[in-house]
Design goal:
- The chain has 164 residues and is mainly α.
- The chain folds into 2 domains: 82 residues, no CATH class; 82 residues, no CATH class.
- 82% of the residues lie in helices and 0% in strands.
- The protein is elongated, with a radius of gyration of 27 Å.
């Protein structure tokens, strides 16, 4: 669904028709109406193309930002002047997030198979916290353990989107 669809609640053609019916009140000849509809269609299509380009630029910017952070992390690891903490803080955070995520997973699995007594805990709050921890776990693992293979396919996807 494009931006035009979201704003006006219809496809580009429907928007042109709606604007065209409003213009019909002021434009009297068929030739003027047709020219105006063609011009409006061109303008809307140009804006749709610009929005697609901006989407590609945003995705590219996000990927470059992630790559920049990975490069900085690699430089820290290669430096002989970096402290133990600066070299290992990311791994310590990975271990901490993994431990919290594993604890939540075991707790929820234990409750599901009745190994843990079902006390009066708000399960909705536990599950929302679990979802948050899972998201952080996935982001952390993806950043530190992600492969260049994924980046390679993302580059191909961006190139394909840019050429369309």
């Amino acid at each position: 669904m494009g931006l035009i669809d979201k704003i006006f609640g219809g496809s580009i053609g429907e928007v042109v028709e709606k604007v065209g019916s409003a213009v019909d009140k002021f434009v009297t000849t068929d030739k003027e109406r047709d020219e105006l509809k063609i011009e409006l269609t061109k303008v809307i299509n140009e804006h749709e193309e610009k929005l697609k380009e901006l989407t590609v630029q945003e995705t590219d910017s996000y990927l470059k930002d992630t790559q920049s952070a990975r490069d900085a992390n690699a430089r820290i690891q290669e430096s002989d002047k970096a402290s133990w903490l600066s070299k290992n803080i990311a791994y310590c955070m990975d271990i901490l997030v993994s431990a919290v995520w594993s604890g939540f997973t075991l707790y929820l699995a234990g409750r599901a198979i009745n190994l843990i007594d079902k006390t009066s805990i708000d399960l909705t709050a536990v599950l929302s916290l679990y979802a948050t921890v899972t998201a952080v776990f996935m982001i952390s693992m993806n950043f530190h353990r992600g492969t260049s293979r994924g980046s390679e396919s993302k580059d191909k996807t961006i190139s394909t989107m840019a050429t369309k």
